[in-house]
Amino acid sequence: MTYDIVIIGGGMAGASLALALKDLPLSIALVEVVPYDSAAQPAFDARAIALAAGSQRILHSMGVWEAMAARGVTPIEHIHVSERGGFGSAHLAATEENVTALGYVVEGRVIGATLTAALAQCANVELLCPAELVAVQVEEDGVAVQLQHTGAPRTLRARLLVAADGGRSTVREQVGARTWELGYGQTAVIATVTTDRPHGNTAYERFTDTGPLALLPCDPPGDADQALRGRRWSLVWTARDDQVDELLALPDEEFLQRLQQRFGYRAGRFLRTSERQAYPLVLRFVREAASARVAFIGNAAHAIHPVAGQGFNLGLRDVAALAQVIAAAVARGEDIGRMTALQDYARWRRPDYLRTAAFTDGLVRTYSNNLPPLKLARNLGLLALDALPPARHLLARQAMGLIGHLPRLACGLPLQVTSDKEEVRVTGGRFEQDCFVTCHLKLAT
Ligand SMILES: Cc1cc2nc3c(=O)[nH]c(=O)nc-3n(C[C@H](O)[C@H](O)[C@H](O)COP(=O)(O)OP(=O)(O)OC[C@H]3O[C@@H](n4cnc5c(N)ncnc54)[C@H](O)[C@@H]3O)c2cc1C
Fold first, then answer.
1. pTM of the full structure
2. Ligand 1: lining residues by beta carbon, under 6 Å
């Protein structure tokens, strides 16, 4: 069977790309090894994802945001940053940035249900599931992809192969893509916790001597217990690897006490916790986001620390950029797997990778050193950040994913160019408002 594009991995990144390409005259196969309705499906679990305002805009441009919002999302209107045992703190507010929300918290399973429902309506996307990629052969004019599909071997051919198969990417292995990797020696422990005070749509990032703690306001969809509505949080507790087994095994009461001790009372008193899950952390990047006939997106291209909730946001910008490069190649009548188009994609994504890695990794490393002069400098830095609006705007724009050369979908524009000399000014705030972020779209044509 021959397709224009085969996407390996139907997680958040792969499913989003298939949807972003739905209006192009292309045949697409989306290959996913774990059935979507399986409890073992790790891509769309109960993990809460903080979607930046820029990502919300991409999903809106793709036509899925309204359905996602209807299933249940929680706006983030304030972000509070502080250090345990320190005197400094900084506060970002949506109103200051002229936006309705700095971002939204959405459960992975809500993202999954929305994307899969939308995919079912796409005539040009064929979902092959359960199907596992076994081998890839790159040839001059295309790729041959060997699968195990519902227990039987099957070969697909395509002009372009997209690796969206996550951190342990088989595509990466098969094509020998080189990666750069650094362990953190840290693991994220996640849980849903409840407090005695309403969250007020505030997200907290608190740095401690063992790693950052994040609390994201998160009202689960269809929450039967209305009494708890507005008082639930998604906790991401980063701990050293050697502390994790103990944290996971603690009885709920003791876990909450430990959390209270590390986080303090800024969010109120912690009352309940769900089961806890652990995710080992690593910093990893492919050296090039594309090679002959192959493009990498999402976690197959990069894994970053969840400190500022940037991973899927970065992956969604991959999706929007690759979709735009493909749309431009289609408009020119070119081969979509041609190396020059893929190099445009890889070049485009590199500065965003470097900036986001520097931001997240820089935060983790700056706060992991407890030397008193450094701690003092950090707290003075937080005070300065809080007092200086331009510094706050810059941080808010990075957190909202509105820095750099934005793809058309992130600007609220359709994927394909509508005029020859398109130069569009878009804003960092609401679509129609004019404010500080000006993006001159240099289209990949
Ligand atoms: C604790 C934690 C908190 C986070 N919080 C945030 C946040 O707040 N905001 C944010 O933006 N990001 C966050 N992230 C990052 C985010 O979860 C990831 O970036 C995102 O889930 C990656 O999606 P993906 O589709 O690229 O990869 P995956 O979710 O790994 O999906 C890969 C898919 O490929 C399939 N697959 C794998 N191998 C094969 C094969 N051989 N054949 C066929 N299919 C295959 C898998 O079954 C899977 O469905 C967080 C991460 C962690 C660990």
1. 0.92
2. 8-14, 31-34, 43, 47, 49-50, 132-133, 164-167, 170, 188, 190, 236, 279, 298-299, 306, 309-313, 315
